[in-house]
Give the backbone structure.
Amino acid sequence: MGIAGLWSVWKPPTGDITHSFTMLTINADDHPFMRQYHKSEDEKRMVVILSEHDYEAWLSAPANQSRDFLRQFPADNLLGEQPQQSLL
């Protein structure tokens, strides 16, 4: 599974190399699967899951085309357990 993210490497004056990364998320309020995993009053979020055929395109996309990848992954392609009642 590929998740869209951003990464950076920085070398401060102290010489210690710092690696950082983030996984991108999008709103999932209306996603039939992911909306089950948040409290009802909370905003629903999901990571941006990339299809395997999009991996190279994501890695080589110019910044102005990155937004094209920020879409919900189809619920039918996700598997998981029912969340505990306390989250609903």
Notes: The first strand starts at residue 2 and ends at 3. The two ends are 27 Å apart (CA to CA).
